[in-house]
Amino acid sequence: MPLLMNPKALFGVTGKIVVTGRGNSPLQKCEVLVEGNASSRTAILNRPHVLNAINCSTAARMMKLYKNWEDDPDIGFVVLKGSGKAFSAGGDVVALYNLLKQGNFQGCKETFWTAYNFVYVVGTYLKPQVALLNGVTMGGGAGISIPGTFRVATEKTVFATPETLIGYHPDAGASFYLSRLPGYLGEYLALTGDKMSGAEMISCGLATHYSHSAKLPLIEEQLGTLITDDPSVIERSLENYGEIVHPDPASVLYRIETLDKCFSHDTVEEIVDALETEAAKKQDAWCVATSRKLQQTSSLSLKVSLRSIREGRHQTLDQCLRREYRMSLQALYGQISSDFCEGVRSRLVDRDLAPKWDPPSLEKVTDDMVDQYFSRLTASEPELELPTQQREAFT
To answer: What start and end residues bound the annotated signal peptide (predicted)?
Structure first.
């Protein structure tokens, strides 16, 4: 259901903001709402009952909007935010789980195909994007915001790439942006799924600005007055409400030396051994807790995710997305392991938090299993197509 069939038709000569999908309108049920201004558009993820989790129709709608806005010379920049208490909890993995249970593999493929294409469009967008990361920002939610121009974090922001906890791997471009974090922080976040605050995001570069959530209406109001496509003008506007913050003293960022020492190793087994050695040597509770967390996580997912981050260091965004597409289909098809379905069942469906991982331990995960995740798809299974030549020509 289109929200904005003709954007220009919504605006009068004053350029007054027009909001679609509010109140008792049927548009209230739409998964992406739109607010308009004379020189900008705001896309609002509107699935608050599932923390704005992204499904195929959401990604398709966003793709259509962004392409229309990119082609419109009257639109200078785009704002992206979530409704309710979250920005976006990521991909709708429960919906994928249900599709798999129904044998609808095509629906799963379409979801990944559409979502990854949208991530690529965000990462190569010709106009600035301002993502307001107020609340939960995880997985695919990070994928559609971090590749953009500006990311505003708040005291309510909770970032994570928790995919290994459900027998999966960080995707939607995660192997690109996590691999570019300082030191081996990306490996740590990918393997443990640990959360970061808004203050931590700004400190390590995942966010570009930090502001208290109470100031977000003022930020949006000021952005709405701008008639520009100049990133420097937008940045100055954001800085008017920016704040200097520091991570909590308990933050992992204050343990970066130990983190790098442990997570720089080539294998997951060596990482676990290093954590245990440090724990015994220094009586470090953080090392103990981190080691225990890794040992409770899907062993196959850990090995696959570590390799993904390491490969991502030497790849472009489009290369990462193509590889992640192969990995994602391998995970969902369950020919190597059924850990994805088991992880979603345990954590999000039955909620017993007692997954039965297969293989059950690191030593049971063979190199062939990991290699298969990264192998090219069969001749009958097309690789992910991204408009790289078209978009690179523009940039």
So the answer is: none
Q: What share of the chain is helix, strand, coil (3-state, %, to 5)?
A: 50, 10, 35
Beta strands in 114-228 (DSSP E): 129-133, 136-138, 150-153, 158-160, 196-197, 209-210
Q: Starting from the edge strand earliest in sequence, which strands make up the sheet with 196-197, in order? A: 86-88, 136-138, 158-160, 196-197
Among the listed residues 163, 187, 200, 342, the single catalytic one is 163
Phi/psi class of residue 135: alpha, beta or left (left: φ > 0; alpha: ψ in -120 to 50)? left
User: Sign of torsion, CA 40 115 387 190?
Assistant: positive
* Greatest pairwise CA separation for the chain in angstroms: 70
User: Cα–Cα distance between 17 and 217 in angstroms, integer?
Assistant: 14
Instruction: Judge whether 21 counts as a catalytic residue.
Output: no
pLDDT tens-digit map of 18-59:
444 444 444 457 899 999 888 999 999 999 999 999 999 999
For residue 367, what is the DSSP state? H
Task: Select which of 31, 35, 171, 200 is catalytic.
Answer: 171
Specify whether the CB–CB gap between 237 and 79 falls below 8 A.
no
Contact (Cβ atoms closer than 8 angstroms) between residue 298 and residue 339: yes
Is the separation of the CB atoms in 155 and 231 below 8 Å? no
User: Does the reported pTM lie above 0.85?
Assistant: yes
Encode pLDDT of 185-196 as tens digits.
999 999 999 999
Give Rg (Cα) of the chain: 21
Catalytic one among 76, 82, 91, 193? 91
Amino acid at 80: L
Active site residue 342: no
Note if 91 is an active site residue. Answer: yes
For 123-133, write each residue's pLDDT tens digit: 999 999 999 99
CATH number for the domain formed by residue range(s) 1-395: 3.90.226.10
